[in-house]
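--- STAGE predict ---
source: upstream dedup step, 1 unique chain passed
mode: sequence only
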Amino acid sequence: MCYYQHDAPKKTCTRCGKHTYCQISARDGDRLLCAACRTRPSSVCACCGRTAPATANWPRGPVCKQCYARILDEPRSCDRCGRDRALVGNADGQTLRGTCSGHGTDYACTRCDNPGGAHARGLCYPCAIDDQLARTLSVIPAEAAEQLHQLRSAVADTGNGRSALQWLRQSNVRKLFIHLTATGNPISHDVLDDAFRAGHHTTVGHIRKILVAAGSLPPRDEHLAHIELRLGLVLAKHPQFDTILRTYVRWSVLPRLRRRARTRAPTAHITAWARARIHSAARFLSWAEERGHTLNTVTQEHVDDWLAGGKSTRYNVRDFLVWAARRGYAHELLVPHRGRPDPAGLDEDVHWDVLQQCLHDDQLPLDVRVAGALVHLYAQPLSRIIALTSSDIRPHPEGNRLVLGRQPLPLPPPLDTLIEQLATRHETAAVPAPAGLFQGSYPARPMPVSTLQRRLNAYGIRAKPSRVTACLNLPHDLPPAVLASITGIHVITAEQWHQRAAPDWSAYLAARRKATTRYDSR
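--- STAGE serialize ---
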């Protein structure tokens, strides 16, 4: 390894352009490529049994990328020496670390000797994060860097070392640190909001989550706060619509979000819903202004031109125009609802097979099995699954219950055992109680919906069609009110699912009528 890094002749890779050690790759058309760009030969993984390019060849055999990362991130006790290390070898029925199995490296940190030192040039994630933070804060004046000491501790103690290290290596993180310390004020929600308005949108969100999880900032309703921040950005771009847009958001959008938050936890989807309507209202007002019209002079013809001249997302203006007409700011204008295609579900046999795989396949990750089973059995949306905590599990003499809605529901075996194992795993990870069942990159923060969806897709579990099939099966056993409570949908939507799932007796009645007529004619 040292030869390839220091002494080997350097050449320019024809794919990525890096000047490093390269070789001619026959699998890539005899191109001169570096080790990162060369196509690796596929082999059967010794851990999961799947055929994939081998990331490493250990004494136990070749391992794929997913198993390589999982084993290094989850060190366990060696059966021979008892030390916690990445177990890369097998011998006489024992699982061994690198040194005990004759492998060249032990995957331990070269600085602190803790396991997991193969990800950042021989360092474990805490040591690598500490070095990266030192380099990041070195460009900040010493008196300002003291203000970020609490942030430094919070980042170092994050629950996901890989994502924290990748995030710190981004150049915009350093720019944001400089921006936060420019005024010399301590970091607060108001200071972070100012940085958000300055353009550091995504990075501010990450820092805020870290500080709230570490207790450095008090928690707040980020969904409502995000809507108000987005409104500020829209008004900065369209100051001439300040009065009408502020009134619309204050008296229409935010009250509905607050009413919904009393019964259901806010989600990223509902925040995107509100943001889309604010942007659509601003675009429509700007479009009308360019044609010499104000809101009270817009006619139905103008609305039709607006809808026909762009994407279907323009129909989001319906909410704003209905509100404006009721308040006397505009005439009665018609914006039809957008047509939606019929939801496509899975075949019943496929749906059942995937459910059995989630319940009984030990090769699947535990969180994937639990999430897949909840989607297939109870039609749970992913946004509701990630919000589950250990407090939602209720012990019962006949088996654990899970709170989905208002009442605890019985869990069939082995799902009750799987959920209990998932809760126990996070309780032992020093997560504050009640621990979330689906932990994300930050302590006390749930996994994003997009992350869980990618994990399910990676194992062939499609959440949307699976939930459609479950929504068609549940109405046969549950009334609309109970269906709405369990699945988190509106009662009207539950009634629509009942109508869709109800058997169509028209063909049967027509056949009976025809048979009766034929019998009477005799």
